[in-house]
Specification:
about 35% helix, 8-stranded antiparallel sheet, single chain, about 30% strand, about 160 residues
């Protein structure tokens, strides 16, 4: 599992440090069920197709989404609005784009535009019910937490 998920962890840490100046500490990756409930308020989803298919999802609570948006836009936000949706979508887009580059030797991939899912305890609909979903929890130095979830399966030879 470590070899599979490590590029996502590295890219996520680099993106947060480079774009918003936030140092992240990854937690221990774990598998989650496709139908599992979650504690998050907002998620940004990027689909992957090509020689592999799946999704990359970043999920967080509203206060962290608002702080990230403020760091990116230098404007204060009190609720999830279009700027917050754009900011969270752009973060997952940058993560997926950079991981795509790292995985090009193994797979030719196409990434979709980000989709935002909002609402307390929302559920992600994964590409298939058998998807092996790995969640990597992250903590920031300020005590914020979020989860990067990844499910990828090869379509080579399928």
């Amino acid at each position: 599992m470590e070899k599979y998920i490590q590029p996502f962890i590295d890219v996520c840490q680099n993106v947060f440090k480079q774009f918003v100046g936030v140092d992240l500490t990854p937690g221990r990756p774990f598998f989650v069920e496709a139908a599992a409930a979650n504690e998050w308020d907002i998620s940004s989803v990027i689909g992957l197709t090509g020689e592999a298919r799946g999704a990359v999802v970043i999920s967080m609570k509203t206060p962290f989404a608002l702080r990230l948006t403020e760091m990116l836009t230098e404007a204060k936000h009190s609720s999830i609005d279009d700027d917050v949706v754009d900011a969270i979508g752009e973060i997952v887009n940058i993560i997926a784009g950079n991981v795509k580059k790292n995985l090009e030797e193994a797979f030719r991939l196409v990434i979709s535009l980000p989709t935002i899912i909002e609402g307390q305890g929302h559920q992600i609909k994964w590409p298939n019910a058998q998807a092996r979903i790995i969640c990597v929890p992250f903590d920031s130095a300020d005590g914020d937490t979020f989860c990067l979830s990844v499910a990828i399966e090869s379509t080579k030879g399928a």
